[in-house]
Amino acid sequence: MSVTLPWHHPDGITNAAALLVDFPQAFSALEEVERFGHRLLIRMAQSGTVTKIDSMVGLAFARRALTQFVALRHLLEHAACEPAKLNLRAIFELNLAIRYLVHGARQPITPKLVTSPRARETRARYLWIADKRRTLYARQAMLDGRWVSRVSKPADRKALRAEIAENLTLLNTHFRTQQLRFGALRCLIKGRAKVYYDKQQWYSFGFPRHPVNSIAALARALGEGGMYNALYGALSGLAHAGSITHDFAVNQNTMQLDVHHPYLVDAFGLLCRTAVLYQSSNHLLLSKAYHPSSLSDAQATFKLTSSQLAGLPSSPGDAFL
């Protein structure tokens, strides 16, 4: 059977070929990290019957980490460094979540720091509840006409009301502590304007001394505020329509606009280094907590990939900043 490959821009093909020739060790490192991610995910999935919410959340995070890294690797292999920045942001954000799940608010994180299954289960239950509450908010928004369109058929509305009531009973019965901490659903409080989200995040309750209700606040609380500032200014600017400096530079000699090519590869080195660093951190944390026998494998992979990236240029370049 013949397969017709999709069209690719000639500059993308040229840049991708040049990267593969110039930085073979970097691509080997990306391959090794992804290989380990697959091994870890399979081991965690086959480690036995899941009896704790913590195990389910850990497995979900392992799958998500691998999925995000696979996307970044394929983008870099095709010289699509610009969109790969968005994947790096996701990897960093997930690392904060995994770190909090495994060790809570404790810092600094050291290899000898022990993770508590009981504490992880508590933190995982808050994530579980936050997820279920988001679903309930969405269901109520559908009833109230706040979710694209209002559900109008009587049978459908009856089914949605029954689903909401059933799930609220479940949460109030089996997750009473977490429900009390979150409070009543803000769209069901009589006499108040309906709001379809919670103020707190699932990790908010691990920081009782000061509010931690955003990724920025979580990064600062975990000692990653500097990295958050460095990464998000560069990476979020590509995602939101609030900046134009990521798209061109002004040539001060000619006063012409030099538009950055979509296949610009200036940030390749920094993307590789940072992605491998945080993905390796994800692997080490997940191995420690959910599959300890994989920890030596994770450490060996980190040591190997660190040596492979040792000579990789990592200047951010104007396009990254």
Describe this structure in words.
The chain has 321 residues and is an all-alpha fold. The chain folds into two domains: 10-105 and 214-320; 118-206. Helices cover 63% and strands 2% of the residues. It has twelve helices and two strands. The chain has helices spanning 10-22, 24-45, 53-77, 81-103, 117-144, 154-174, 176-182, 215-221, 225-239, 268-290, 295-308, 317-320, and strands at 248-250, 257-259. A two-stranded antiparallel ribbon has the order 1-2. Strand 1 and strand 2 form a beta hairpin. Helix 2 (24-45) runs antiparallel to helix 3 (53-77), helix 3 runs antiparallel to helix 10 (268-290) and helix 5 packs antiparallel against helix 6. The protein is globular, with a radius of gyration of 23 Å.
Topology:
Layout: H1 10-22, H2 24-45, H3 53-77, H4 81-103, H5 117-144, H6 154-174, H7 176-182, H8 215-221, H9 225-239, E1 248-250, E2 257-259, H10 268-290, H11 295-308, H12 317-320
Helix pairs in contact: 2-3, 2-10, 2-11, 3-4, 3-5, 3-10, 4-5, 4-9, 4-10, 5-6, 6-7, 8-9, 10-11
